[in-house]
Amino acid sequence: xxxxxxxxxxxxxxxxxxxxxxxxxxxxxxxxxxxxxxxxxxxxxxxxxxxxxxxxxxxxxxxxxxxxxxxxxxxxxxxxxxxxxxxxxxxxxxxxxxxxxxxxxxxxxxx
Amino acid sequence: xxxxxxxxxxxxxxxxxxxxxxxxxxxxxxxxxxxxxxxxxxxxxxxxxxxxxxxxxxxxxxxxxxxxxxxxxxxxxxxxxxxxxxxxxxxxxxxxxxxxxxxxxxxxxxx
Lengths: 111, 111
Hints:
The complex is a heterodimer of chains A (about 110) and B (about 110).
Chain A: E1 5-7, E2 10-14, E3 19-24, E4 31-37, E5 43-50, E6 55-58, E7 61-66, E8 71-76, E9 85-92, E10 100-101, E11 105-110
Parallel strand pairs in A: 2-11
Antiparallel strand pairs in A: 1-3, 3-8, 4-5, 4-9, 6-7, 7-8, 9-10, 9-11
Chain B: E1 4-7, E2 10-13, E3 19-25, E4 31-37, E5 43-51, E6 54-57, E7 64-66, E8 76-78, E9 87-94, E10 100-102, E11 106-110
């Protein structure tokens, strides 16, 4: 079953604009992770945010987590054409470390 | 360090054939997992292992078998391939409740 639901399913922006993707989930979690997948490639880890954290930054990426609303957002600032990819949120709800993925947001950044 | 490697990169099978997808990691993590990714979907967990000699089922285990004789290797066996198993398969490793590192994937087509 899909735990996370990303919104929007697809996003098209111009280079230099900011891109915001949202993720909602259903159960309590240990952490939430964001991954990027370029077309036909594997997943690249972007950020892990733990349930006791509210915000995290990494370069041009900013992730927020609201456990009361069971939601997270990923902000990419000053986007580049190279940011074109699918972005997935994955939640870790149990004790084993198994991840549950959403269906992803397909981001297209036009030069 | 190679990280997570998967072989083969691409495979075509006929219905009823069996095969083994290989996954190896040199990151010395105890936790390893297999996911499948279907078009328009996020990743779904097939099987996972928290250490050598220990395996367990994920969300979609039917038709697949795993074993974990060493820390480094976690092969996934398709017992009798079916068209519904056409998918991209990803292996991952990492600490429990930590970042997961994914391999490049194996594309499987079952005719």
